[in-house]
Amino acid sequence: MEERLSITLYLTSKCPLNCIYCFDDKRDCVSCTMEDSQEMSPKIAVSYLRIIIKNFNKFISNVKEPKLNIHFFGGEPTLRIDTIKTVVEFLEKEKIDSNYWISTNGVTSEENIIWMISKKFRFDICCDGPPKFHNKQRPFVKGNLKSSYYIERLISLLVKSKSKIRLKVVVTNETIKTMPLIVKYILGLGINHIRLEALLIDGRAIKTKLKSVNPEEFVEYFFKAAKVAREFSKKTGRIVYVSNWALRNLFNPRDYFCQFVRGNRIAVTADGKITKCVRAIHDDFDSPFVAGKVSGNSLNLNKEKCDRLNKLSVDKMSPCSKCSIKYICGGGCFNENYQSSENFSKPNKIKCELSKLMINQAFKEIKMIRR
């Protein structure tokens, strides 16, 4: 398998939506005010990429020609479509083998979407179900616009062009029992792979006082939703999937969960900070996930921090030592573990419980389907 360096470019914190659970809650979303120095301009992005490519062996050794995965992230990254287009143009001109993907809410011009499709972007999108759910959980900052219109338009364009799509549904206590209905709605839009993810209490979810979903209830309705997908697949002949983070390693067991922390992935902010976790973009340099900085014409990488992160393993998590499914959950998200206890070795309690219930039920479902 070819080795690629995946680079998340954090372009802006600005966003036209005010999602009730957004983890990236370090900005004033209502006014969307932000210093120019915190925006990644085309000039800054290209200068950082030049330095990273020049120092490619610091990330992946013994590689003759750099290969990149470029991820555009925010906020809403299409607010800096100028930077996105300049990055693609630069990498094409330099003949750097690059793939592109973007995390977007679709609130941009149709022209921009069609351009990204033409460049074979992969799209990470979020649709929380029918308009009454999606609009409530992902409202606009201002005005009476409905975000459901934009996500449905985006999905329509992507499905018609056969673009690669990763779609996530954030399930809250209000929508947990409607997961089968949500899956039916999204399948009707033409999506074949749906990730149902329980609400993570982080960022704005703390401020809006949202509550964690009940793990047992989530698992119950998750598999009811999965049954809807199976029946739809049999009826239509379409191969469809309903997944959850806890099942991602079900057929590929390993001692870690996240390819960001342990893999060849970095996130770069406008001020040149390099992190090994996209959720650490606002962390200070004393964070265990902030591993370096791009400045001037140089790149400084804290090898000690990188080595420490690369050695994180569920095998070193004492509460998990005798767990029969530890290589499926991989110990969960190391950042979530650290945020909940300031200790990489202690799994997040709620996510741990959810993993056990989800994986054990998955084994039961597999046995039932094979009978």
A few lines on this structure:
The model is unreliable at 28-37 (pLDDT under 50).
Q: Which properties best describe this structure?
A:
11-stranded mixed β-sheet; alpha/beta; single chain; 371 residues; 11 strands
Largest sheet: 11 strands, mixed
Mean pLDDT: 91
SSE topology string: EHEHEHEHHEHEHHEHEEEEHHHH
What's the total helix number?
A: 13
Question: Any idea what the CATH architecture of the largest domain is?
Answer: Alpha-Beta Barrel
Give the domain tally.
Answer: 2
The helix content is 25-40%
- Give the percentage of residues in beta strands: 15-25%
Q: Looking at CATH, which topology of the largest domain would you report?
A: TIM Barrel
Shape: globular
Uncertain stretches of 5 or more adjacent residues: 28-37
Any chance you could write out the topology, listing elements then pairs?
Blueprint: E1 5-12, H1 42-54, E2 67-74, H2 81-93, E3 97-103, H3 110-118, E4 122-126, H4 131-137, H5 147-161, E5 164-171, H6 179-188, E6 193-198, H7 204-207, H8 215-236, E7 241-243, H9 259-262, E8 265-268, E9 273-275, E10 290-295, E11 298-301, H10 303-310, H11 326-329, H12 334-341, H13 349-370
Parallel strand pairs: 1-2, 1-8, 2-3, 3-4, 4-5, 5-6, 6-7
Antiparallel strand pairs: 8-9, 9-10, 10-11
Helix pairs in contact: 1-2, 3-5, 6-8, 8-13
